[in-house]
Amino acid sequence: MRRAVFDTNVIVSGFLSPDGPPGRIVEWLRAGTIQAVLDDRIAAEYAEVLARPRLGLPAAEVRVVLAAIGDAAFRIEAAAEHQAPRLPDRDDAPFLECALAAGVPLVTGNLRHYPKAAAGEVSVMTPARYVAALGRGRR
Question: Where do the domains of the chain lie, and which CATH numbers do they carry?
């Protein structure tokens, strides 16, 4: 489970709350301990959201983290058969589509954005659950 799709809210939360599970995930992504599964849509969203002035994130640190994620990422193209049906917000589709195409978990702070009916076989989990599961796998 070292590979996963990480919703943008997890990455943002990792910057805003570095001591919590999202912070650990961002730290692991930066160190290459885990690997983000993403496509061009997700990479673009990370860059756009993390650069928002209202978040006040340190630009140099954002660049370092985005470079680390990009360098180590498992890049994927979600094909038509991986299109996410019936999501409350269609903007969340790239995350579910990539998780489905790669057969990896989707880690998000907004579980309600990925109802079971839409997620299907994809394991959708919170950052805390992902960190705990990864921690158990390291023993």
Answer: 3-137 (3.40.50.1010)
